Amino acid sequence: MDSNNASYNAGQAQGQTQEKASNMMDKASNAAQSAKESMQEAGQQMQAKAQGAVDSAKDSTNKN
Fold first, then answer.
1. What distances in angstroms separate CA 40 from CA 29, 32, 44, one per listed residue?
2. Torsion over CA: 43, 44, 50, 53 (sign)
3. 3 state SS for the chain
4. Considering the chain, what percentage of its residues have pLDDT values greater than 70?
5. CA distance 48 to 46
6. Sign of CA dihedral 10, 12, 16, 18
C-alpha cells in the first residue's frame, strides 16, 4: 500500500508541477504579447507625431 500511495503522490506532484509550469508559460506569453502591443502603439504614436511635424513644416514653407 505504501508503494502505491507514494506512486500516487508522485504523480500528483508531477501533475501540479506541469500545471504550474503551463500557467507560468501562459503568463510569460501574455506579458510578451502586451509588450508587443505597447511597442506597436508607441510606434504608431511616434509615426503620427512625425507626420504632424512634416505637415507643419510643409505648411510653414508654403506660407512664404
1. 16, 12, 6
2. negative
3. CHHHHHHHHHHHHHHHHHHHHHHHHHHHHHHHHHHHHHHHHHHHHHHHHHHHHHHHHHHHHHHC
4. 95
5. 5
6. positive
Q: What is the pTM of this model?
A: 0.60
Distance separating alpha carbons of residues 16 and 9, to the nearest angstrom: 10
d(CA 42, CA 53): 16
For the record, the C-alpha cell of 57 comes out as 513644416
- Alpha carbon dihedral 48, 54, 56, 58, in 10-degree steps, equals -150
